[in-house]
Each structure stands twice: as C-alpha cells, then as structure tokens.
Amino acid sequence: PGSAASEASGLPSSAVEGVQDSEVDLGHLSIHTTSSVDEEQLRRDAETYLMQMTQRSAQILLNQVFDLEATVTDMGYIVQLPPAVADLPRARPVPRRPRADHLGEVRR
C-alpha cells in the first residue's frame, strides 16, 4: 500500500509495513526499536532478518526527516532538526578549561 503520488510516478512506496514500536530522536538522527527480536527468524537467517530490521528502522527515520519543513537553497534542501530528546552518554568527562593566573599565564 503506497501513496497515490508514489503509485502515479511509478516509484516504490516509502511507507513502512508492519511498523514496529520505535522511539525516534530527530535531534540526534537516531531511532531505538523497542519491539522484541524474533528469535526464530534470527536463528533461521540472521543476516536477512537484521538487514530487514535495519532497513525498516532507517525508512521510519528518513520518513520523519522528510516530513520536516524544508528550505530550498542553492545547495539543495535544508531542514532544521528539532532539539534532541535523549542525553547521550560521554565516554570521558567534559574537558576542563585551564585556569589563568593573575599574570595571564595558563596553569595546568
């Protein structure tokens, strides 16, 4: 089941069938699938199953990106991403700025 526009143009539909439960964070351009893994399909053909899950998730993410309001420039289309939803963890602490002493010299 595709859109009328994709059917009229002869292009394949970008509609995602059997949409899984997903949390999309457009600010980070990321998607987290919350649906369970089908262990039987994974055992049968892991590569195909994982490729289908990845393709489906990427299509959900891209459909939402293309739903954003776009501005046309001489370089192409530009969209303003919304603020990020999730806080990403850091592997290391935020770097501290070196302090300067009263003479303006940087101390470590």
Outline:
With 108 residues, this protein is of the alpha+beta class. The chain has three helices and six strands.
Beta-strand level of the residues, as a percent range? 15-25%
Instruction: Sum up the overall morphology in one term.
Output: flat
Low-confidence stretches: 1-6
Class by helix and strand content?
alpha+beta
SSE series: HEEHHEEEE
Strand order of the largest sheet: 1-2
Q: What fraction, in percent, of the residue positions are helical?
A: 25-40%
Provide the residue-averaged pLDDT: 83
Radius of gyration (CA) equals 22 Å
Largest sheet report = 2 strands, antiparallel
Q: Count the helices. How many?
A: 3
Total DSSP E strands: 6
C-alpha end-to-end distance: 63 Å
Protein model, in words:
The structure is a single chain. This protein is an alpha+beta fold and 108 residues long. Helix content is 31%, strand content 19%. The protein has helices at 4-9, 39-44, 46-66; strands at residues 22-25, 30-33, 70-73, 76-79, 99-100, 106-107. Strands 1-2 form a two-stranded antiparallel ribbon. A two-stranded antiparallel sheet has the order 3-4. A hairpin with a 5-residue loop joins strand 5 and strand 6 (106-107). The chain is flat and about 70 Å long. The N and C termini lie far apart (63 Å).
